[in-house]
């Protein structure tokens, strides 16, 4: 994976923040068709994103426990 994707994945996790965001909002802001910068796709594949589906509610996404570990490691390294 290119080095440019790593910081962007962490930026995505920071952007989602501590509270779930609407799935549509996240995809609008972060989905890309560029095969060289698959930020959303890579974050999902690594298990950094949780998908929340509740009947009658809009789909949400949140930073997974594994994603939180990555964010804490980033903060500790700064």
Distance between the termini: 22 Å
- Number of domain modules: 1
Shape: globular
From the 3D structure, determine the CATH topology: Arc Repressor Mutant, subunit A
Order of helices and strands: HEHHEEH
Low-confidence stretches: none
Radius of gyration in whole Å, from Cα? 12 Å
Main sheet: strand order: 1-3-2
Structural class: alpha+beta
- CATH class, named Mainly Alpha
Task: Give a verbal description of the structure.
It is a single chain. This protein is an alpha+beta fold and 78 residues long. It has a single domain (5-77), classed as Arc Repressor Mutant, subunit A. It has four helices and three strands, in the order H-E-H-H-E-E-H. Helix 1 (5-16) packs across helix 3 (39-45). The longest helix has 13 residues, at 65-77. The protein is globular and about 40 Å long. 15% of the residues are buried.
Brief rundown of the structure:
By secondary structure, the protein is an alpha+beta fold.
Features:
alpha+beta; 4 helices; Arc Repressor Mutant, subunit A; 51% helix; globular; three-stranded antiparallel sheet; 3 strands; 13% strand
């Amino acid at each position: 994976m290119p080095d440019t994707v790593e910081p962007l994945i962490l930026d995505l996790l920071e952007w989602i923040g501590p509270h779930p965001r609407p799935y549509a909002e996240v995809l609008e802001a972060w989905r890309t068709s560029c095969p060289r910068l698959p930020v959303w796709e890579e974050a999902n594949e690594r298990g950094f994103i949780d998908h929340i589906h509740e009947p009658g509610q809009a789909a949400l996404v949140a930073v997974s426990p594994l994603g939180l570990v990555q964010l804490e490691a980033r903060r500790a390294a700064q």
